[in-house]
Amino acid sequence: MTMGQTITVTVNGTVHTAEVEHRTLLVHFLREQLNMTGTHIGCDTSTCGCCTVHLDGDAVLSCSTLAVQCDGREVRTVEGLQAADGSLHPIQQAFHENHGLQCGFCTPGMMMAALGIIEQQPNATDDEIRAALEGNLCRCTGYQNIVASIRAAADQMARS
Amino acid sequence: MAVDYTTQTTGGIGDAVLRKEDRKFVTGEGRYVDDLKLPGMLHAAFVRSSFGHARITSIDATAALALPGVHAVLTHATLPVETGVLSASNPGGDVRHPEQAILAKEFARYVGEPVAMVIADDRYLARDGADLVHVEYDPLPVVVDAEQALEPGAPLVHAEYDSNLVKTLEHVTDGFDDAMAKASKVIKLRVDNQRLTPSAMETRGCIGDWQEATGEVTLYTSTQVAHFVRTFVSIVCGTSEAKVRVVTPDVGGGFGAKLNTYREEFAVCAASHVVGRPVKWIEDRTEAGVATIHGRAQVQYYEAGVTDEGRIVALKFDAVQNNGAYNMLLTPSISHLTLFMVPGLYDIQDISIRIRQTFTNTTPTDAYRGAGRPEATHGIERLMDAIADDLGIDAVEIRRRNFIQPDQFPYSSATGLVYDSGEYEMNLDKALELSDYAGFAARRAESEANGKYRGIGLSTYVEVCGLAPSAVTAALGIGAPGWEHSTVRLHPTGKATVITGTSPHGQGHATSWSQITQTELGIPFEDVEVIHGDTAFQPYGLGTYGSRSLAVGGIALYRSLGKVREKARELAAHLLECSMDDLEWTGSSWQVKGSPDRAKTIQELAYAGWTSASLPEGLEPVLEATTFHDPPNFTFPSGTHVCEVEIDPDTGRVEVLNYTAVDDCGNVINPLIVDGQVHGGVIQGLGQALFEETVYSEDGQMLTPTLVEYLVPSAADVPPMTLARTVTPSPSNPLGVKGIGEAGTIGASAAIVNAAVDALSGLGVRHIEMPMQPARIWNVIQEATS
Ligand code: FES
Ligand code: FES
């Protein structure tokens, strides 16, 4: 490996210390080095949002973030959504109950982006959800049920 | 708003059951090709032509091979394959099929054509290596436009032919000339169905794993047609088909783009043979823009001979189809599907069709959601509005006057199809009511008061689905059948395994097939496992495309379930010591008529069939059945879509305000899934209408390779939708189903363009080409008002 650096990153609550190349993208670090393949790659121009994860609580594109930038920080991925007892997070449950996914490829990034939206705008209208979701592409669902899923999750999370 | 239903977690045919597939996807446990790692796996990157047309004069891999971590650089000369990519399509015979070498041989004929392949320790190094391969090109003249490619003196894409013509498809009815001569008016229209990039969110990818000791080859690939791929890998790589296994893990969308066999799939197998380790290739999005097939790319010229009342008595259709540089699996057959659907759902008996397919220096085109049928529907639906406009007849009325009527079914079309069933006015009436078509004038006035142009548009469609009766595919020159396979296996514990030859990639077959199993065999939904995606344990299956999975694969399943039920009946009669005729099926058990206490549940019978302690004479152990179902006919889903748009004259932006879709896909297994298919399909059609276009420069450079230039609709672009259904069950299959995978896409683009033309009709605008991006609309308005 050329030009390496040791980083320590907390992913879904677990601390990982690893050697990475300077050019290694966060998404490749997660997928190739930590074998956490729930985060997907849909483009190479930061356009699709399939790779969305949370970095210190903010939704970011892991394809446009270097692994070395995450040194000492906290990453949350789709694998970290479920509760310890295996029950689904409200956003996961909502996507299931509202048929918010078909092929499932955009879904992890979509849910992570959705959580970011709900956290920032808990009372977002459908139009606001649509606008905020602009950076996450889905080719299967036509977004109808994704928007419905996010609204349902927001309601559920507001109640609990 | 969707069709009214209450979702549930288990159920049978017709219930809105939540999908059993979902959990792995929402937890990140889906397994797509890129998620797989094999021991010792290496990574491939391709060196691709940067010229639209060139002679390759030299390839120098010295620098790449010197890079630590690079294992091999393969070219046409060193990649061990027996032949190039094969096409299965030869409509009408004599189709020109030039050789498509796995890695370019002497010429590169489109930007992105693979020239060399670099194998390295990881994908970064493979890409570094590819950048270091030095290829010398001698550029040659380029042609990208299909009509220009047919002009005398156009640059030849393949020098071995005397022109760029691939094939001319023709179909003229005997009475056409007379009918056209008698028409009181001839109305003409040119429609450009632009080139599109399918853009599944998961790009393609594959892993080849060639076992030296046994000669077994395993290919993991993101495909819709694993068995085709297997057959072709064996031919291209020169190995026994019995030694090839194709595994389809989860597939992140296909839309026809993965209904193919690609160079990279063969190349990773051959490369694995060379390096003795598994080789993985994952397509970059930018690479996908040139390496994966495109769709549409058809220019159409219509001439409609009409009576004063607006009846179409003769229709002439002359089109040029851009096939790209080579024919892929089905390329020449795609515009053949257009040919079939030229008359749409109108009773037009005299017709003249010519479709000229051409080679150009572009990425090959092939099936993209709808595959030839959206082209036909968009054209005829634009034409209907043009006729209505010309004759001063309402757009709804002109359609009513030309519809095939319910009493005409089964209906023999002028292109040789037999439409199974449909009530087109029922779709239309329902859509008009739901969209408050009658109240549009007031809404238009409101928009006008706000300085906006508002229009309403509709599209009425019929599609040919359920591909396909094998005798018909053979007659159409397709070198593959159209049947589908299923196996139903009952375990001693009473659970069921369903093996299907269909290849879902978002369509939810595990859920729908479980529902059918619950209804037909009484095994609860949650006790059914649906298996697909591995040729090692599946009989040959044809896969998922052409809205065929339910109408063909679902019927194969239905028939296997029936066979198991009958076998269970024979066993039950034996165990209950009665005759088979004395038994009645309760939905989950066989019981002696009128004696509920004398019954055997299907689970008890599954156990008894397995123990085989006491079987009737001649009955084999185990409740299991297999079916290869060849459909007797296609199916013909239909519908009416209505939408309203508002156009901002200052910016040229077209906003779709609302969208109503009424679809008749026959009987419905799961309304939730059907709605999802319509949603997604409509938005792909909307994408074509408003944003999407794959553009080449004149010298063959790809100008829209990424999702930055190629505009896939986002959530912010889509309107709220109202969905509804009508049902005319297909008489061609026992479930009465028709298919819904492509309907949305087929219906949408014309409805949206018709609405935009309607909005600007006051300015004298009669036609607008797609995509209706703001600049185009702004120019249309400027021209119309200056
Ligand atoms: S992979 Fe597309 S935005 Fe990150
Ligand atoms: S569910 Fe397939 S891309 Fe969104």
Radius of gyration of chain A: 16 Å
Tally of contiguous helical segments of chain B: 20
Helix content of chain A: 25-40%
Question: What oligomeric state is this?
Answer: heterodimer
Whole-number total of structural domains of chain A? 2
Shape of chain B: globular
The beta-strand count of chain B equals 30
Q: Rough shape of chain A?
A: globular
Mean pLDDT of chain B: 97
Approximate helicity band of chain B? 25-40%
> Based on helices, strands and strand pairing, what is the structural class of chain B?
alpha+beta
Q: Which stretches of chain A of 5+ consecutive residues score pLDDT under 50?
A: none
From N to C, what is the helix and strand string of chain A? EEHEEEHHHH
What are the segments of chain B in which pLDDT stays under 50 over at least 5 consecutive residues?
none
The first-level CATH class of the largest domain in chain A is given as: Alpha Beta
Q: How many individual domains of chain B?
A: 3
The CATH architecture of the largest domain in chain A can be named as Roll
Structural class by sheet pairing and helices of chain A: alpha+beta
Mean pLDDT of chain A: 96
Overall description:
The complex is a heterodimer of chains A (about 160) and B (about 775). Chain A is built from five helices and five strands; from the N terminus they run E-E-H-E-E-E-H-H-H-H. With about 160 residues, chain A is an alpha+beta fold. Chain A is globular. The model of chain A has no long low-confidence stretch (mean pLDDT about 95). Chain B has about 775 residues and is of the alpha+beta class. Chain B folds into three domains: about 170 residues, Aldehyde Oxidoreductase, domain 4, CATH 3.30.365; about 190 residues, Aldehyde oxidase/xanthine dehydrogenase, a/b hammerhead (Aldehyde Oxidoreductase, domain 3, Alpha-Beta Complex); about 325 residues, Aldehyde oxidase/xanthine dehydrogenase, molybdopterin binding domain (Aldehyde Oxidoreductase, domain 4, 2-Layer Sandwich), CATH 3.30.365. In chain B, a hairpin with a 2-residue loop joins strand 25 and strand 26. In chain B, helix 6 packs across helix 7 and helix 10 runs parallel beside helix 19. Chain B is globular. The chains are: A alpha+beta (about 160), B alpha+beta (about 775). One FE2/S2 (inorganic) cluster sits at the interface of chains A and B.
